[in-house]
Amino acid sequence: RSAAMTGVAQGKLTPDAQASGSMLPSLLGINPYQTPNDCLIKAFAAIDNGGKRPNGDWNYIEAADWGNKTENMILAETAKRLGVDVQIDVLEAIQHPTLPLAVSLDGIGQGTGEVFTTDPARGIYVIGADEIVLDGPGILESKLTGAPASFEPALYRGPIQVEGCMMCCGYKWAAIGTLYKGTELRIYLLPADPSRQAKIAADVLDFQARVDGYKNHGDRDWYPALTPNDAANTWRNVDQGDPPVTLSHELSQLAMEYDDAMRAGAAINKLKTEISTAIMNAMGNAADGLVMEDGKQIGTVTWGFNKSRAGYTVADRPAARAKSIKVKIND
After folding, report:
1. Most exposed residue of 14, 56, 138, 156, measured as fewest CB within 10 angstroms of its CB?
2. Per residue in 220-256, pLDDT tens?
3. Cα separation, 86 vs 220, whole angstroms
4. How far apart are the C-alpha atoms of 197 and 201, rounded to whole Å?
């Protein structure tokens, strides 16, 4: 059965001061490129700008641009392989009936009751079940990535997002068409997951409470930072008028552990420098050294040569001897 396709791909349609489908992996803390606090920063900026993200807050990302340009093609091929009709002229955001969550859809597929199981020859993979019935309307999502193809998609690359879409639409299935490196399309079929949807609902409500706190009272109720970079991006300024923070017993212990780690790291680096210098003096102009024990070679020491580097946006670097060695001990 041939698939029919109507419409054109749409851009961002969801409100900027509440949770959206694409934001959900970040709110759940599984997006390596964006943290929950990043989402709050954008929501706060939207509130300050009358409900819309400032124009200067959008950064051009070429990979995302190609994803938009190839979206219709990926949706068309996904629909063709599944034998479903697809609508992609979804012109409005879809608001969840009870949660502060809105989604914009790449496409809606019309299932015909066909049963699917994993079929690698056709690039079809059923996730979270042995089989799935595409009955009635379902979510169609397009993804483009340079990552290697996998049997299951990363949670931040579609599954969490389409779960939110199914919640808003009341649909029971979703298909994620992922084009890997421009050469291999894999279609992941997912049934609705009640436990995952319960987690999403809780995190959406938590996010909205923080957004409302800022909107109504100016309170910035940040999430605990996930990394030092996240902390520096969240608390960007130093208030010289604030008194020192008295650390708890547990945090004081961690501070001492940090100091111990820094001292150990410095000692290790000093020891590495001393050892490297001694071995370099022995090797002279030789490229390789043999590590011996009881008269037998058990490893090698390599003192390489850095290639020259042409100067473009960085300073020229002539070819020069490496300033470190590599030691490999045989297993």
Report:
1. 56
2. 999 999 998 999 989 888 888 889 899 899 999 998 9
3. 42
4. 6
Residues 271-313 have pLDDT tens digits of 999 999 999 999 999 999 999 999 999 999 999 888 877 666 6
Q: Give the separation between CA 229 and CA 190, rounded to whole angstroms.
A: 34
Q: Which residue reads 């002229």 in tokens? A: 89
Report CA-CA distances (Å) from 316 to 57, 82, 319.
35, 54, 10
Residue type at 40? L
Torsion angle defined by CA atoms of residues 226, 231, 233 and 236, in that order, rounded to the nearest 10 degrees: 160
Residue type for 71, please? E
Q: Please answer whether residues 139 and 105 qualify as being in contact, where contact means their C-beta atoms are separated by less than 8 angstroms.
A: yes
| pTM summary value | 0.79
Residue 302: half-sphere exposure toward Cβ, Cα within 13 Å: 7
Amino acid at 167: M
CB atoms within 10 A of CB 233: 14
Residues 6+ apart with CB under 8 A from 182: 144
